[in-house]
Amino acid sequence: MIDDSTRCPCGTGLVYGECCARWHRGEAAPTAEALMRSRYSAFALGLPDYLLETWHRTTRPPHIELDPVVQWRRLDVVRVDAGGPFDTDGVVEFEACYRGIAASGDIERGVQHEVSRFVRESGRWYYVSEA
């Protein structure tokens, strides 16, 4: 975990305590984009329980294991469709840059590009699937 005064991994420029920490501590993210950013931060910080809690029950796997050699380096939001505080669904397209170690032992850099679907139920946003 990181200190609340450290920059948040999600890339907003805010410190963690003013950004994703509140969602990680149980507050409901107000938008699909805020949830997506908090899920990226959860990957970066190694918070699998949060990822499962924010995954929609209809598509959630029984467990999730994070790869300890993958370091999430940067998040770029490409596009947001709906997903606002009064919407019930939304789509967020993003690119997440990572660094890891390949089977050969070489450093591997890459970008995960994804278009994700989200739904809001009972005031909480959930990740559903890739669109």
From TrEMBL:
InterPro entries: NTF2-like_dom_sf (IPR032710), SEC_C_motif (IPR004027), YchJ-like (IPR023006), YchJ-like_M (IPR048469). It comes from the Bacteria. Pfam families: SEC-C (PF02810), YchJ_M-like (PF17775). Residues 31-129 form the YchJ-like middle NTF2-like domain. HAMAP family: UPF0225. Belongs to the UPF0225 family. This is UPF0225 protein C7K25_04365. The lineage of its organism: Bacteria, Bacillati, Actinomycetota, Actinomycetes, Micrococcales.
